[in-house]
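Shift notes (night). Ran YtkA-like domain-containing protein while the centrifuge was going.
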Amino acid sequence: MNDTNRISRARFSRVLLCSLAFSWLAACGGEGSSASPDQESIGLRGAMQFKLVPEAPLVQGENDLRLTLRDAETGAVVEGALIEVTAIMPAMGHEATFAPAIEEAGDGAYAVRGLALSMPGRWDVHVRVEHQGTIDEVHFYYDVP
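Came back to this:
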């Protein structure tokens, strides 16, 4: 084996090792990390504060969650809102099989019953709210084991 081949193999080995290390680091953090079960965020339009909490660890199948809504500016609870919750699995490109039932529970809280997550993996749960002419929405990401 000549010097050029040895240098090329050594360079290839270093590049491969670095690529594997970066892939491992990317898998350990950031967007690809496990999503927290309790999630809270200001909506995309900045009008509402959303908090979505699973009632039990998420499973493949039907899941129940509790949604709490507050006015982002005043902190006042949001009652009487029209709410739509959908879930999509970005990796597979398909949505949850049917919409969950949503019941107002009082004090800005809403029960989300029967959110069907049909397979393990990362799910994008999209919450859209309309209240007194204001529309806001948020995306939460959950990992189903």
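The first strand starts at residue 39 and ends at 42. Confidence is low (pLDDT under 50) at residues 15-34.
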